[in-house]
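Field log, afternoon session.

UNIT: design team B
ACTIVITY: writing a sequence onto a fixed backbone
BACKBONE:
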């Protein structure tokens, strides 16, 4: 195949991946500043290895080479984290209870997230005609994401999150987006214990398994008659921020994503950026580490140890998003300095011919604020509207 034909096929493939994502030059003025790093971080790529180099050191010098490099990145991470189970062709969705919330129909459902594995969730459908954009919202408990107000008593993660201080405040992403016209699907931790997620016979790391669950939820949403399958995004905060990042990077059918303060790169100085824990990437059947930061006496375990010590980092996963847009809604864990890693994703997009695909907002503390939520919702509205 000649170079022009290869380029044409690549451009067609990239266009299909983006779906109906809107053009960068249409970005509203209120969002535009978030696509530019502060001057002190502009052009700063730090010590991160460029995703635009193959593992053997060769540079990606032509558009036709990017698909191969992308496959190489994806293959490496799946090899380290363990293989996914078979994807579900038609995930089952069983309605348990339905009630109205203003102009929104709320369905409490059981959804098939892995072969033979059902998990409770909430599906919100606003009263709108025609196919609509949809957003998946992963978090500890789906009740938090929909600000559950039903008659059933809260238990487990939901009770903990919604009755302890303000931990549920500002995290009702699914309800807020449904009020803006999005179909939303909210899911929680498999087994309802974030520190011991139910993995069954799955052979991959917990965070990868959660990305797999999200991929099947995407399929379920795409098969809904109310949903435009080309306009499905994902948003999550903290634990859900990690989950949404891995989901959108590993499953390229998500059209765009918002990752709220989950820690977008490895950072062993931040106790909340704890990818080393066994409920994320540090699960090791031979070693059980004590929860907490990595120290000389409480070291790294599982795939996290190998990935970290071999110099790989999560900016490689960010590159898999290109040219799909994503927003980092940063707080205490993802400050402006994270642009050093995000510059690599912007460089990949630029190499592919795209600008304004990588954005970041910042707030001082970890919890979402009204302002940060409005920015996130506006981002999703822009990139998922027809």
């Amino acid at each position: 195949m000649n170079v022009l034909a290869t380029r044409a096929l690549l451009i067609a493939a990239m266009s299909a991946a983006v779906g109906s994502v809107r053009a960068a030059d249409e970005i509203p003025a209120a969002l535009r500043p978030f696509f530019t790093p502060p001057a002190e971080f502009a052009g700063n790529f730090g010590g991160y290895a460029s995703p635009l180099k193959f593992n053997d050191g060769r540079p990606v010098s032509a558009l036709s080479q990017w698909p191969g490099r992308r496959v190489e990145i994806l293959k490496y991470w799946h090899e380290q984290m363990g293989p996914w189970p078979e994807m579900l062709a038609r995930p089952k969705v069983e309605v348990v209870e339905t009630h109205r919330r203003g102009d929104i129909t709320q369905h409490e459902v059981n959804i098939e997230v892995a072969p033979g594995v059902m998990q409770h969730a909430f599906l919100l459908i606003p009263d709108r005609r025609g196919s609509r954009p949809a957003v998946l919202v992963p978090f500890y408990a789906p009740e938090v994401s929909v600000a559950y107000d039903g008659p059933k008593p809260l238990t487990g993660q939901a009770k903990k999150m919604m009755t302890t201080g303000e931990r549920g405040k500002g995290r009702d992403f699914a309800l807020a987006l449904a009020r803006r016209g999005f179909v939303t699907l909210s899911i929680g931790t498999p087994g309802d214990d974030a520190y011991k997620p139910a993995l069954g016979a799955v052979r991959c790391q917990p965070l990868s398994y959660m990305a797999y669950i999200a991929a099947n939820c995407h399929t379920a949403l795409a098969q809904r008659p109310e949903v435009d399958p080309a306009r499905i995004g994902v948003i999550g905060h903290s634990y859900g921020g990690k989950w949404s990042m891995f989901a959108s990077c590993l499953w390229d059918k998500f059209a765009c994503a918002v990752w709220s303060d989950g820690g977008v790169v490895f950072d062993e100085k931040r106790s909340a950026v704890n990818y080393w824990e066994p409920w994320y990437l540090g699960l090791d059947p031979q070693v059980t580490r004590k929860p907490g930061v990595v120290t000389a006496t409480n070291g790294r375990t599982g795939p996290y140890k190998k990935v970290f010590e071999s110099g790989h980092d999560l900016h490689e996963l960010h590159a898999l998003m290109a040219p799909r847009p994503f927003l980092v809604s940063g707080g205490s864990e993802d400050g402006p300095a994270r642009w050093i890693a995000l510059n690599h994703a912007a460089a990949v997009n630029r190499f592919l011919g795209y600008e304004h695909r990588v954005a970041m907002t910042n707030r001082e503390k970890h919890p979402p604020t009204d302002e940060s939520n409005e920015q996130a919702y506006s981002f999703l509205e822009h990139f998922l509207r027809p």
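LOG NOTE: The chain has a mean pLDDT of 92.
NEXT ACTIVITY: expression trials, pending approval
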